[in-house]
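thought: fold this chain, then report.
action: predict
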Amino acid sequence: MKPLDTKPKPRVRDVIDFGSNEAAKATPSPKLSAELIAQPDPATTVLHAINAEGEVFSLSGTGDSTPLNFPDRHQALEIAVANPDGAVFVLARELPAPSTSGLRDYALWRHETQGWRRVLDIPGCAARPVIAGSAQGVWVSTGANLALFDNDKLGLAEPLDFSPTAISEGYEGTVWLLGGEKRYGGVEVRRYDHPSGRWFLLPPPAAAISLAASPDGTAWGVSTKGELWRFSRDGAGTFRECGNDADCRRCFYKPDRSFVRSVAMGNDGNVWLLSGRADETGYEIERMVNLRTRETHQPNPPLRAVSIAAASSAR
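observation:
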């Protein structure tokens, strides 16, 4: 991968129908836009989650919860889903986890028909690795190294100029990263530009602490204030619901709600959130039932988590 490139490139307007999950043909437009033109279907989505007690479970869009019993004596930390096959991966460490050198050992697990299988050991880490689902498998970041785990093999690590704090790959293949310098409501936001082979740094004030790639090539982000935003691919222009000029350099459209902690999005367009105050099991799980108004719904009974990953239930 080539050095960071901070020059935005023109892009035609993206339009996607979340109801059918089929992108319409792009048409030239003086504005950069990604319209939200349908409500997501709860029947097509499933959320995989880990709560603060280390319990792993799945939750359908209609509210049905299923435990995914994780092996004893292991602490599940982060969850990811590989799209489009829906394979579930968990980053975990063994318990107890003594450390005299400040380094810790981690492992990547995959959920299969027979249960959980340990597929990758990640020893001697000074900081907890970061994982995210991909169309080819799962992204694994250890410090400033980013690699793709595919077919039970870890590819060559690609050195970065920063240590990612979050990774998200959209259904159409755009890879987004959080990490680097602190700014405004979090840290810097980058995406990988496939045509140029470079990482594109979104201009200020684009920043977030949690990130979810959308199937239309945009992304949803959460700020340190708990505000939920949408980012355009090129860091300039506008979304239709924003109404600002195409020359605007802002992160686009902040809703009138706060205290969101994390966001996840499936390839069917469903948006899931962790929000509210934490208790001993984590933050409240919500699903966005209207993407324009940001109206959300909680499962009944309510469930909480500390790590979430969304996928399509249609296999």
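thought: worth noting. Residues 83 and 135 are 5 Å apart (CA to CA).
final: tokens above.
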